[in-house]
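User: Let's play a game. I give you a shape written as tokens, and you guess the letters that built it. Ready? Here's round one.
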């Protein structure tokens, strides 16, 4: 099939509410040396997209964000922290991928998934999708799955038989963390709202606290690891809930908190971890293989067509979405 020359792309030419996003036409890029062109079948609107579009970043990161993404006008072509699609053209020298390959890519802060086509470097964080995993499933495991994996495995270093509490267990990161925590052999307690209890239970978690009914903070239990994906707690507020060598993972933390965490971790037996994560191909391969073995299920709360992208941004901005929000992109 001949590749058309014009594609649709979702742009926000200013920062602001979901309404600043609109779908426009743009030329389809041509792959250069080492690049491949992917026809996108699915992407997500992630909380990363929400933060960049609305400039709602934790305190202290505004200047860094301005330098990277623009102070007055967005420097990026399109938002979109991930994509899944088919390789349709190759630049010179590409050997890892072929046309027809089904791939998923973690674009991270390089962005650009909210379009019908995107160029990828063959050495980017991109993996082939196994035949029995759909584009929607593959793309839904990227943002939350990779974040949860890096926080649990590399930052708080969760161990077998430890007790793990996950706050925000029904979101993209939380729903991945509860599953990965269980796979790592931990005893997992999930905290979520009433509406998400059944979805979290269906992911195999028996110990679920509905935060609208009871507060985990006032109960007697202690945890080896607490992972907060919401940004509602501080170390000082919850340190009595951690065991003597307990670790707190703050997926959302402002810059002063991140700096204070380093000091806490240097001076106390309990440790606090925050900071950003970086994307790589191996983590994608790992999550895809868990998904193929049916040990890990990316939770998809909503799937919308690409032209409903403004509605998608509104759902994400609510801060109460279930799992990942997938956009089905097709021509
Ligand atoms: N450090 C990093 O590199 C990194 C990477 C990825 C994401 N993040 C950040 O991590 C955060 C989570 O991302 P996400 O994509 O998982 O978000 P999400 O899908 O919107 O999930 C957040 C979840 O938190 C729950 N929640 C909201 N208020 C709550 C409260 N008061 N108590 C308990 N739960 C509450 C929401 O549902 P219910 O209230 O209905 O249960 C929702 O399911 C975002 O702020 C994102 O920017 C950071």
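Assistant: Ready! My guess for every position:
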């Amino acid at each position: 099939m001949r590749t058309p020359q014009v594609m649709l792309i979702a742009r926000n030419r200013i920062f602001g509410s979901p309404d600043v996003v609109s779908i426009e036409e743009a030329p389809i890029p041509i792959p250069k040396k080492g690049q491949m062109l992917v026809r996108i079948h699915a992407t997500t609107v992630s909380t990363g997209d929400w933060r960049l579009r609305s400039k709602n970043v934790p305190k202290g990161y505004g200047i860094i964000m301005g330098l990277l993404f623009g102070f007055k006008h967005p420097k990026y072509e399109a938002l979109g922290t991930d994509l899944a699609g088919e390789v349709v053209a190759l630049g010179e020298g590409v050997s890892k991928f072929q046309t027809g390959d089904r791939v998923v890519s973690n674009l991270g802060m390089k962005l650009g998934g909210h379009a019908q086509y995107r160029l990828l470097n063959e050495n980017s964080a991109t993996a082939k999708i196994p035949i029995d995993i759909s584009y929607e499933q593959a793309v839904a495991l990227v943002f939350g799955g990779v974040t949860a994996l890096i926080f649990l495995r590399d930052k708080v270093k969760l161990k077998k038989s430890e007790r793990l509490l996950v706050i925000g267990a029904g979101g993209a990161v939380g729903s991945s963390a509860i599953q990965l925590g269980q796979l790592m052999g931990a005893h997992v307690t999930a905290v979520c709202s009433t509406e998400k209890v059944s979805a979290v239970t269906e992911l195999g978690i028996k110990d679920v606290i509905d935060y609208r009914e009871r507060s985990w903070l006032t109960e007697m239990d202690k945890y080896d690891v607490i992972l907060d994906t919401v940004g509602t707690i501080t170390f000082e507020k919850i340190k009595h809930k951690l065991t003597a060598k307990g670790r707190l993972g703050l997926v959302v933390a402002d810059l002063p908190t991140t700096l204070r965490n380093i000091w806490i971790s240097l001076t106390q037996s309990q440790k606090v971890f925050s900071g950003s994560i970086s994307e790589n191909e191996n983590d994608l391969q790992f999550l895809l293989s868990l998904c193929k073995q049916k040990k890990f299920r990316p939770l998809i709360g909503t799937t919308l067509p690409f032209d409903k992208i403004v509605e998608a941004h509104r759902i994400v901005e609510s801060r109460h979405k279930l799992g990942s929000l997938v956009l089905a992109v097709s021509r």
